[in-house]
Design goal:
Blueprint lengths: L13 H23 L3 H29 L4 H24 L5 H34 L5
Helix pairs in contact: 1-2, 1-4, 2-3, 3-4
Length: about 140
């Protein structure tokens, strides 16, 4: 099952939404590599791309939160640390096994895709709403 960027994942922040689409694309690249190549090297390469883009995206989100004085930034950073740990756990699992197993793919879907959906719909949307409210105080 591939991840999909749907309307319920839109935060209203164009930069963040674009990065979320790219992040979902990286997850799908990883899943495709597991199906098509089913080898450790291919999956590890895609997992590294996912990890790199995740770091880039989280750094951008955290910089945005700092710039707007978002009060929930520390909790948000902890949530980001959770996914970083999950990606490391996936990498460890992949290197311990002969390749991307069904359990590995299930873990990607559960601990990355599902986590990301929930995170966007709750934490990231909250940041976007906070930014919107601060940008439009004269309209309230």
């Amino acid at each position: 099952m591939y991840a999909e960027f749907t309307d319920d994942l839109i935060t209203g922040n164009e930069t963040i939404d674009t990065q979320h689409k790219e992040l979902i694309g990286k997850i799908n690249d990883l899943l495709r590599s597991c199906e098509e190549h089913a080898n450790k090297a291919g999956a590890a390469k895609m997992l590294n791309y996912l990890a790199d883009y995740t770091d880039f995206h989280f750094n951008a989100e955290e910089a945005l939160q700092e710039s707007i004085g978002y009060p929930g930034i520390e909790e948000h950073k902890k949530k980001h640390a959770e996914l970083r740990a999950t990606v490391q756990e996936l990498y460890d699992r992949l290197t311990e096994e002969e390749g991307p197993t069904d359990a590995f793919v299930a873990m990607v879907n559960e601990k990355v895709t599902d986590w990301l959906y929930y995170h966007i719909q709750t934490f990231d949307r909250s940041v976007a709403e906070y930014k919107y409210m601060n940008d439009n105080t004269g309209r309230i």
